[in-house]
Every structure is written in C-alpha cells, then in structure tokens.
C-alpha cells in the first residue's frame, strides 16, 4: 500500500446532530433560504493533519458541526495500529486525546506530557502540520545535562534542535522535526529500528538525559471606576502609590509613545523575536491598569499604583499568542535581572494540577527571589478551568468580577485540577475596564483615540498586581508569601459566590494596607484519604502589627457544590475567639477528621473578625474527604495460559465519566461501576499479528478486587463478504465507553489479511454505556506480494514513498542482496530479479535512491525493503525501480525466503479497487458471543458513486462513517478511486456520512465534501461528487473550525465581531467545501461605509471587529480565491463581493446572497461545444427567503478577459440561463443579483466548466 492509501484507523468520533434548513415557500420570484442541499448534504469537513511526538500521524476531521473523526497512521508501517482515546471536558469545550500504544506506558509513568496527544488542543494552538513543521517540546533534563549538546541522547539529536536552555529550571526548548519524528522518538526510548519486533514497547523511562518531555505549549492573552472599586484612592491618600516598586508585565509589549506610560517603563525586553512594540494592544492596556498616569484623560483613567516602575517583557505576539519557553525565560528575567517585586501575567494555557513547567517555574522563582507572581485565572468560564501558570502553589490566581461585584461570566472557576486546591484565591474588577489603547490596534471597544474597553481576567490581574505594589511599598521587607496572604486575607466577600469562584473575595487594597491583623496563611487545602481515620491538623497563624492586642471571633463555614454543609465533625477549630497580642502572633488549629460524614469536596472561608467589623481576615479553605476507594488488580493470561507482558488498561467510571489509564496491574479507584478494558498483544507467528481486546462492562467495585482476562476464552473477530476478491482494505475493532459527560476506549486496526483480533467479556457482563464495534472497508488489495518458492506465503507490503509503480501481475526470481552496497551487489546476480534488501533502519532517501539506481543499472526489475524506516524524498523525485516496503512481521520470513536457492516472488498491483464494501457490526452493552460477521452483497445498500473531475496524479479518495451507538463508526481508511468515473459501492444498511477529497499531498488537501444519507437494502442510491459548477454556497450552518455550537456561516459574534466562513468550493450537488490553506491563495476583506476595517490573507475565512455603530451602516464583504494546481481544471478563480446591512440580532446570519449553477456535465465536468446550452441558476439568501429584484449573468470564454451577456429567463423561483458555446475551451460566469432589501452580490467563477474535449 502507498502512504496515501495506507490504512488509517478510525480512532474516535463524536456524533453530532445534523441541522437542516427548512425552505420557506416564498412568493413567486423569491429566493429561498440557503438550501440544505440534497438529502443528507452536511457541512464540509476540514481535515487537520497532526504529526505526534511519536511520529504517528493523525488526521483529525472536523465536519464543522461538532462531529469529529480521527484517523491514525503509525510511525512505523507494518505495525499494528493500537490507540487509547478519551475525552476531557472543560466547560463547553471537549478535548480529544489519542495516545499510541508506543507512548502509553511513558504517559502512564509520567515521563511524557499527556498534552502532546491532545489532538484538538494541538490544532487550537496551531501545531498541526499545515501551520508547524516541528513538534515544539520542552525537555526536562537531569542536573548534569545543562549543556545544550547533552540534553538529548545522541540518536535523538539528528531529528531535533535544542533552541534554548533554562538551566535554573533544567528545561530545554527543543524543536522536533516532524519529518523525522519517528527517529526522534525511537532515540528517546532506545527502540532503534534494528531492534524492532511486534511486541509493544514496555519502556517507562527515557534514555539519556531527558527526565520528562513536555509540550512547549502556546499561551494566550487571557479604568475608570475600577481603581476606586478596589480601594486604591484610600491607599493613595496615605502616600501609598507603588513608588520605588518594580512590577514586571509579561504580555504583548507596550506602546512606547502612549502618554499614560511616559516615564513609567524602567526596562523592557522582547522574547518573541520581534520588538517590544505592542501590536496587539493587550500589554499596553494591562500595564496602564497597574501604573498608568491617566495623562491622556486628565487623570480619569489612572492606574492602581501610578508611581510603580514597570519592567515590560514581551512574550505574546501581535495575535496574543506566546510560546512556553519564551514565557519561562521572561519569568526568570523578570524576577532575576529586572528585580521585580511583583510579576503580572495576564495569560494562560490550559488547566493543570500545578505540576506543569510554567507552574513549577513560578514556584522556583518565588522561592529564589521572593517575587509575587499574579496570574489571570483564564477566560473560558469553566469550573476546574484555572489555567497554568495560575495553578502554581505560589501564584496568586485572580478571577474577575464586574463593577457590581458580581462574578464575571467568563471568569474561570476552581478548584484546581487533581488535588482540588483553592484556585483562584482572589477576584478583582475585570469587566468593561477602560485603560490605555496602543496606537494602531483595534482590540476591544475604543474609547477615544487613547483608550479602549476590555474585559477579562487579564484586566483583573493587573488590579491585584498594582495592589501588591502598594503593599510592597508599605512593607518593603515582605516576600511573596506575605504579600499574597495579606491581599487574600483582606478581600471583601462576594455575595452568593463560593471559594471556587472568587477565592476569599474581591480585592480591597484599602483594607490590606490599613488593618493590623493578617494571617500568614493565604489558603488551607486538605485531602483526607479513604479509609484513613486519623485526623489532620492545620495551624493558622495571625499576626498583629498594631500597638494594642486585638481579639477576633473565628467563624468557619464550609459547603459542597450544592450548598450543603458537612458534618460538624469534619472541620473543627481549637477556639472560637483568639487574642493576638500587639506586635505578636496567635495560632489556631483546624482539625480535619476523615469519614465523619458524607464524603466529598467542601470549600469555604475561615473569617477572623473583630466585633465592630473594622478588622476582618478571610482564609479560603478546601477540604476533600475522599470517597470510598479500592484497589483493582488486572490479571492476564495469554492463549498459551502464560502471563503476558504489560497490558494497557482503561477504567471508565459509568457514573462520573472519568477515565483512569494505567499500564500495569493495580490501580486505586473510587467505589462504583466501571467498564474495564485491557488490551495486550500475543506473540505473532507466520507473519501475522495477534491482538487481544478484553472488557468487563459494568464491573462493580466495592472492595479490593481482581479482574482476570483469559485470552483462551476469547473469540476471533472476522468480517467477510461473498466477493472473495475483496480481501484487503482495513479492519477496525473498538471497545468504547461513553455517556453524556465523556468518552474513552481502545481501538485496534490493521489489514485483515495480516492481523488477528480476539475479543472477550465475561458471560452476562453488560452495561449500556459500553459498546463493541467492528468496521471494515474491504477491497481488492492494492499490493499482493507472495513468496512463491521455496514455500508460498503472502507478505505484508506496500509501495515505498516516491516509488515507481506497476500495475498487473509480475513473477520474478528473487535474490537477497544484503544492504545493497556495491560490495553486496557484486556477489549476486540481480538481473531480471526482485532484489530484497535488509537496510539499516535509518537509511535516508538519498542513500536509498543511490542503491536502487545501482540495482537498476545492474538489471534488477524491482526492490523489496525489509527493515526500512520510511523516508520521503523531494517532491517530484522518484526511485528508479518499483520499490516495496515489507512489514517488520513479514520481513524476516521474506528475507529468509530470498536467501534460499531458486526463490521466486509474485506481485499483483492495482491502482484502484473494483470493489468497495463499507461494513459495520455494532453491539451495544457487551462484546458479542460471535464476533464473526459475514455480509452478503444482496443484503447491502448499493450506491453508485459518480466521481467528477480529478486526475490520475490527484484522484479522489473517499471515507465513510456509520451513525451508530451514539457515535460515528468506520475505518478512516482511504484509497484512490478512479477519477472521472463511476463505481457501485456497497454499505451496511443505515445512516452514513460519506466524504470525498483530493488524494493526500502534496499539496495536502484538508477540505472534504461530505454527504449524509440513510442507505437501505434494495433501494439503489446515487451520489455525485465535485460536479461543476463549483463555487460559493452557504447551505445550512456550521460549527466553526474546531466544532462547537452551530452557527451561521457568516454571522455577528458576541455583538462585536463579524465571523466569516464562506465555502468557496462547494459542488453542484450542494456539498459545501472551503478553500484549502495548502492549495489556495486569496484574501477576505471588510469595509464599512467605504472605510476598510481589515484585510486577512485567507480566502473565505476571517474575523473582523465590528462595533454596534459600524453594524448600523452599509457593509461590503469581499473574498477571492485562486487555485493554481495542475490537477484542478475548473473554478480556478472564485470571487464574490456582498453589500448588505448587517442583521444585528445575536447569532443571526448575515443577509448574503449566493448564486448557484447546475449545468449538465459529464464526469470530466465537460459540456458539448459549438452549440447553444441552457442550464438552471438559483439565488439563495443565507438568512431566509427574499424577493430578488434584479439578476444578470455574463459569460466569458477567455478566462474573464472579455464578457458577454447571457440570456436569462425566470423559471419559477429560479432562472434558466442560455449561452452559445464555442467548439472547446472553458466557460467563466459572472453574476450580479440584488434583493428588495438592497442586499447585493457580485460573484465570478473563472473556468466554471469545460467545453468540449
């Protein structure tokens, strides 16, 4: 098989409801709404290609409606495709993880960051292959490896570059070249190609210097009445303005000419490779909240600490994004070289448990320098959503409230992931904050030329940082812990909000600087382990800086997330009152007793206050009384009754949706119901791989338990048809758990000719949240390679990349030629033979090409490689002979056969398959008693697929997914179909989503036409793909580039931005498809009342700021696209321009008109020449029916150089257009339409269809 048509395992899919638009009747001459397209047409899919740190390649297909399918190609061809998958839900966002079996033990042991396998997270951070040719890593290394050349083991160095070292934290930023990612990973794990076997890696540590590999994550940028709201003016009256205190602002730089920052910046440094100039506007806004003078507003928009010194570190680019290693370096600079007392970071990445590199750096630098890091909690509005580095123990995490002290809806909430610690610890104003606007930036809502209004925890954090500067001026000897405890302890309570939302409450710098009593403890966190009964104790110390003793009453209030208080025995204070002597301290003990009531998580505040309320110290508290938990031990027996090696285990909690993964025997889990899945390989024999997939659905855990999986009880999975030639293709077996909260499971896939999968679950074990499924795409094999003599067997093989190809059947003598070096070739006769080579696994393409050339010169006919790690050559450069790669399971047998005297081999190769069977066998609740599935062609749904256009070099490829078990089932396998041809294909009856795109790279096409239809036995169907005219369409709705809630293609988002997605390459059947970043060039622009708002260099896709005032005017949206590719013959240039008045209702579609054509074309997208030609035309409006008052159409036969009018006649709600064709060439179409509301469109398609041959 080629890499392009290589097996892709369907790793997971999220089912999504398919929205349709119901067409209104409308009056005669009215345009209908944008049509839903043919029965089952759905939003076009976008495929994101992501190369993982392991070298495995994931193709993540987003259908724009929240539907996802993930296909995986293993780094090492011929390896079984085994992957764990699970979801992690954060608020409204669900992230999808795919972990290859080669990495699972390393992830489970904690030496590889799980975020390196967060597929949706990598796409969101623009680490997909279309936007990054490296995998950005942060390598944690041992102390003795500080030198850059010692960070990586030697084998890994050849595939990666050390870009920066951070010796104080023992981190190194490493760029792993994606094209060599497999070599890099093998170098890290010590699994060299020469040592490969079918047995999965059981390594749980890395070789050489690295201790752990992290994702070098991207971070993002997460005043009028606000200064008074936090009590700053009261502090100013006492002379506390932050004078002589340095506050570092790690953000997007600053406007060096802004009046409010004049004389404020003591030092500035860029860490992004640009300059300190703020091209985003975020950093300037943040800096002025801290120390702005308000000069441009007559003092109105003054900062919280107007006399503080600023140290500006630019770590975010002009799009508001930053790289982790840049941020780590800036943190060290700020606390060390810049000597900042306070460091504010209005940025974040993703929620963590506080052990990630950024959090650890905060803790390290805080301990070393005493600087207080004030960090935004994040703006996703999520519970358990506080992002790194706010999750650091030492960080002061800040949430947001509005001007009425109500929680801002965007503010992330706690508790912290993992240990449920208090985060955020404090809140501050972050909604609608007016502060300095950087010149030339459009972020936020401008307030005059010098200011802008922004909302976010990014705005709340600098309020706290300014307060910290004021407090540091008052107490210059205090370190970070003292500043943090004083700020948290003096916070004002926020009504009806708990500790997980606002910590101790809203910032009150006036109280922080004036009251004499403070706690030295900023928060209390406790985890009470089940079944321990021994109490834990925490001491809270109060300090009195006043000249008289102070007596405070102690009041502890705790509650769970439902507002229910715990048993009084859970948390008890040693005293109800305590007197703190003047200049001294007093302690109170908090005793926490486990198993004293209902277990769970309880949060609240310990308040120490005087009777008159003038003094009040608040200490936020989180207590997790663990629920009942037990050990689960998984025992395995192989087919021979012996204990195999390590298994990969997933335990899915049926009630909570939480997934626990481990690679070993025993794990501790909360009592409850679980679906337990274990997978492990068995030793292979005869070149066939054996995989075992075991499950115990609905296992009840109420005590320490052992689950035994015996492979001798398992049954073999098979899928066959009554067409014996359809024996190749791909076969997937999955064991999956899912509920409304989460999804997890294990998937295994490979060619059905060379793999055996055995499945088992205990008799009677069943659980509705569990499912089994097998899916197969069966075809005649692309490559059939047999050793014919001395004994006949089939070898698992595929075409090497850049190989010359054959079709048909060949039979040759074969000979083994060692490594293919001249000395090896001189010892054998290769003439007219298939030459077998055992190459060193890291042989590069250039060296391989030389050896193949040498074999051709000596008369060889073809080459088979039995130990080669695939490496691609330059585009357009081919190997001189047909060259096959043989899997590492078949390779040793094939190599031995070639060494025997008189050896012969046969090869049958096909460019495309005569057959296509898409088969599924789902079973809800359990593993079936008989997993063998035999399908009869007569019982299947027959579909005639018409593949229009394409070329032999770039033919169409197709995938298919069955809607079942609440998800999408399929193989994600693609294989080339014959271009401009038809084929009858067979499907299991049911509802299918079928997609067609151009063959994979180069260029790598990611946009897919997609169709949804219920297919039935005995009801033949026909689906047409890529028929002309291809052009703009706005059918139905979309879910955006990373799924999410349904919304129109072009709409007003959040009342402040015009979100534009125009599928410019939708086919005549109504299948929508967007322009492709690798193949297409163009732009999208927006103007309001003749003034340009913005231009973005992406055809059909943009987001433009659009204020409410602008949305009341006349808007012009324009987009253009050019596809200059030898395999794309029609619709080579597409452009459209709309003039309209926006619909200002939230989430409403814009009133955009589109013109659609459906000429009668053949499979080459050609019409007959030298005659008159009539075809239908429709005009639709995205938001519903409208009366069309004017329509005209022009045609060009010289690619738009000259135009002539076409005759158009009304045909009901549509038109018929008539043109006179020349003998040959192409027809281009230019249309103009206007409706009664004044909305217009001008749409041009160059080479809309071909004329003649």
UniProtKB/TrEMBL annotation:
The keyword Protease applies. The active site is at 251 (charge relay system), 282 (charge relay system), 458 (charge relay system). It comes from the Bacteria. GO terms for molecular function: serine-type endopeptidase activity. Pfam families: Peptidase_S8. One of its GO terms (biological process) is carbohydrate metabolic process. Keywords: Hydrolase, Protease, Serine protease, Signal. The keyword Cell membrane does not apply. Residues 242-499 form the Peptidase S8/S53 domain. SUPFAM superfamilies: Subtilisin-like. Gene3D superfamilies: Immunoglobulins, Peptidase S8/S53 domain. Residues 1-30 form the signal peptide. Belongs to the peptidase S8 family. This is Serine protease, subtilisin family. It comes from Streptoalloteichus hindustanus.
